[in-house]
Design goal:
Length: 128
């Protein structure tokens, strides 16, 4: 019985550590096309395959089209956020090339804690 309890405690510690890591704020600021970051900023094409380190990142293969909605600024300017189909997440700007700019001016706004949460239901931790 105590071995099962030890295993469950270990799983809880690992789960807590992973959730703290996956909600780490990547930047305090971001650039967007509007104050709500709902307007598409640009259309880009992947120049390389990319597999992100966790569920907050957008995975793609060379040639796929991505719509960009925001770009982290100041502390972490290399990460942009965008979508392809129903998938949404962060990706490095040097893994894509800009095909079309859709806005005239970028606005810098504060990020929110919710900007750094996983949005994929299939990656949630489950315990039995």
């Amino acid at each position: 019985m105590s071995r099962i309890l030890d295993q469950r405690i270990l799983l809880l510690v690992i789960s807590f550590s992973a959730s703290v890591w996956s909600t780490k704020v990547l930047s305090e600021w971001k650039k967007c096309g509007d104050l709500e970051c709902e307007q598409a900023m640009s259309r880009v094409q992947a120049t390389t395959d990319y597999l992100g380190p966790d569920c907050r990142y957008l995975n793609f293969t060379t040639g796929e089209e991505i719509i960009v909605y925001s770009k982290l600024s100041r502390e972490n300017e290399n990460l942009w956020t965008g979508s392809k189909g129903k998938d949404f997440g962060y990706f490095p700007r040097d893994a894509v090339k800009v095909e079309e700019v859709l806005i005239g001016e970028e606005l810098e706004v504060l990020t929110k804690e919710t900007d750094f949460l996983c949005l994929h239901e299939d990656n949630e931790d489950t315990f039995e």
